[in-house]
Specification:
Elements lengths: L5 E7 L6 H14 L4 E7 H8 L6 H14 L7 E5 L5 H10 L4 H5 L2 H9 L8 H4 L1 H11 L4 E4 L4 H18 L7 E4 L27 H9 L20 H9 L2 H12 L5 H28 L1 H30 L3 H9 L1
Parallel strand pairs: 1-2, 2-3, 4-5
């Protein structure tokens, strides 16, 4: 058995990944593959928390998420890449953990209140939405993960999982390691309108966007609101457009753009064309790898099947330990009767 620490993370199957998903998470996951035993999954059951009324696209979205993972650099030979619902043990552990999780603990989760307030077009008054942190905890504990990659602003989300872990271990013995945050760089990834990039805001650039789509979206990017005329000096430190340069432009180009912007030697329209060129150059290899995977569906499904098989092996080992600790190990009792 591997002596490496186990890393676990996943992404909801709500559609193709965008630059925020890539720079905020997946790019960092790629760099962890040789240092840790990594499990990465498409969270199709988590997609149900908001998309339960129409599930028609979730399965296809799931395959696209897996294709994005691999196109962005995750290697099925170095990481276990799988689909959440293909490992039904997630549901069993979620059920068991829900029995020990206080309702008040879930109601105090900041993102729960925030999303109830912000997402107006869907009824989120369901247990599934309230209880998603319990399922999330089950995702982590099922693989006995030691580390969960997060940005420092997400550390509080993991603390609830740690509380549930401590409670389980206090009741039933030290079954699970207490998961710790693996802090990873999370650069600012703005949306086209300056808000956080999000599919729900309609302000994202997807990894699969064509050159034409990237140019169209770049032309609509929000820029320095204080620069009214072409001859006005700009302020790159407060310009949404310059944040994209920080993501995809080499340092020398970043310096050149910042200098010319401050001296009004480059206008916002020309800079939008420049950033479109940089985004196209950066994303084209990812998009081409992704297109090849989507076109070769049998290979993609083989990767999904093999990764889910490997994930389930570890998940079953964990559930054996959990059932034994909780006194539900009926298979051993039946084996004694058979003898």
């Amino acid at each position: 058995m591997s002596q490496k620490a186990v890393v676990l993370s996943g992404m909801r199957s709500t559609g193709p990944l965008h630059l925020g998903n890539y720079f905020g998470a997946v790019k960092n996951w790629v760099g962890l593959q040789d240092r840790y035993e990594c499990f990465y999954f498409a969270a199709d059951w988590h997609a149900l928390t908001t998309d339960y009324a129409d599930t028609g696209e979730i399965a296809e979205n799931t395959l696209h998420v897996i294709a994005d993972f691999i196109a962005a650099g995750l290697d099925p030979e170095r990481s276990v890449i799988f689909v959440q619902s293909m490992v039904p043990e997630h549901a069993e552990l979620h059920l068991l953990l829900s029995m020990i999780t206080p309702l008040g603990m879930l109601e105090r989760v900041p993102t729960y209140k925030e999303q109830i307030r912000e997402i107006q077009n869907k009824d989120l008054s369901t247990y599934g939405f309230l209880g998603y942190p319990v399922l999330q905890t089950g995702d982590i504990l099922l693989y006995r993960a030691h580390l969960v990659p997060v940005g420092e602003d997400q550390a509080s989300h993991l603390e609830l999982s740690r509380e549930i872990t401590r409670k389980f271990n206090r009741f039933y013995g030290e079954v699970f390691p207490e998961p710790k945050a693996l802090f990873t760089p999370t650069p600012k990834v703005p949306g086209l309108d300056g808000r956080k990039m999000s599919k729900s805001y309609g302000n994202s650039i997807q990894l699969c966007d064509s050159e034409e789509e990237i140019r169209r979206k770049a032309s609509s990017m929000f820029t320095d609101p204080t620069r009214i005329r072409r001859t006005d000096p700009g302020h790159p430190e407060s310009c949404n457009l310059y944040d994209f340069h920080r993501l995809v432009s080499p340092p020398e180009l970043q310096e050149k753009v910042a200098r010319e912007c401050r001296l009004a030697q480059i206008g916002c329209v020309d800079d939008k064309k420049l950033i479109a060129d940089r985004l196209i150059e950066y994303l084209t290899p990812i998009r081409e790898r992704r297109e090849a995977l989507i076109a070769d569906r049998d290979t993609l499904l083989d990767i999904v099947g093999e990764g889910s098989r490997k994930a389930r092996e570890r998940a079953q080992e964990t559930l054996d330990q959990v059932r034994s600790a909780m006194g539900f190990d009926y298979q051993k009792l039946l084996a004694k009767v058979a003898r």
